[in-house]
Amino acid sequence: MSLHQLVYLSQSTRKLEKEELSAIWTQAKANNARIDVTGSLFYNGGWFMQVLEGPAPVLASLYDKISKDPRHHDLRLLYNEPAAFRTFVRWTMNMTNLEERQADKYEELVDIVEAAKTGRKIYGMSPAVTLLNFFKA
Ligand SMILES: Cc1cc2nc3c(=O)[nH]c(=O)nc-3n(C[C@H](O)[C@H](O)[C@H](O)COP(=O)(O)O)c2cc1C
Predict the structure, then answer these.
(1) The model's pTM
(2) Domains present along the chain, CATH in parentheses
(3) 9-48 burial, b for 16+ CB within 10 Å, e for fewer?
(4) Which SUPFAM superfamilies match (predicted)?
(5) Which protein residue's CA is at the shortest distance from atom 23 of ligand 1?
(6) What is the C-alpha to C-alpha distance for residues 64 and 68, in angstroms, rounded to an integer?
(7) Is it the case that residue 103 has pLDDT exceeding 90?
């Protein structure tokens, strides 16, 4: 089945505690492993940016389910395209909390989320594409 990558931005309904983030992460990892989805979730205290990768129909129904989750709202689909390879091949869901400044690649990731919020391009590329390129081996 054809592999797709999807990237969206959303606003968390309120500021989430670490435990609440962990709960989302645990749930996502368990579900995604079952449905052959990989990806990465970034949280900056107010906004989520998530990459999902997997078979196109699976992603469509997962995105539909995630979009109804009351823990966030104002979802903006930034990218939804076929892909030759997975970028987060080792992760059923990676999680980066950008509230912790020691996060790997902190400055770049904060800038990507900020650019996505306003629709600003980074070196002529959409923030979603910049994000995907950033993690390509
Ligand atoms: C920002 C955010 C990202 C999420 N990412 C995923 C995900 O990657 N996979 C997933 O199954 N659920 C994810 N969820 C949780 C789903 O919205 C939903 O609560 C969960 O899949 C329901 O699990 P269940 O069908 O086992 O009850 C996410 C929720 C939020 C708020």
Answers:
(1) 0.96
(2) 3-135 (3.30.70.100)
(3) bbebeeebeeeebeebbeebeeebeeeebbbbbbbbeebb
(4) Acylphosphatase/BLUF domain-like
(5) 27
(6) 7
(7) no
